[in-house]
Amino acid sequence: MGLLAHFFVAAEDDAVRYDGGRSFPESHRAQYKSFTEIELGTLYMIAQGIFVDADTVYDFKVVGSENDGERLVTEVIPDLSSRLAAAQDETLKAWAKLWGATEELRIPGSELMPVLLDLRRLSRLAASEGKSLYLWNCV
Q: Residue 46's closest CA among 85, 73, 84?
């Protein structure tokens, strides 16, 4: 099955109860696989225009954990969410190309565009509702 990676918009009190999406509106989530804080940290470096350094680790706020980390909810760094919300299509394309070329991903940037478009959509939704963007991982 692999690692499930769902991005979703919620208030923190609701985020800890994320259940894989069943009780959250489809408009407030996007479901993928294999993305973790590591890949998001790399995307954050790209969004800041700084050198991608595999040794740099960002401290994502953990808001929920179950079964010794088999299910984990973390808040996407608010500055990354803001940058995603403000990004134009051309910026996302440039980020996708750089992100896809990283050691963690090694995939064509075009395959990352749907992910970035969903992240932008969700970041804008979070901003408009006064909520945050979260990542839910489940092994």
A: 84
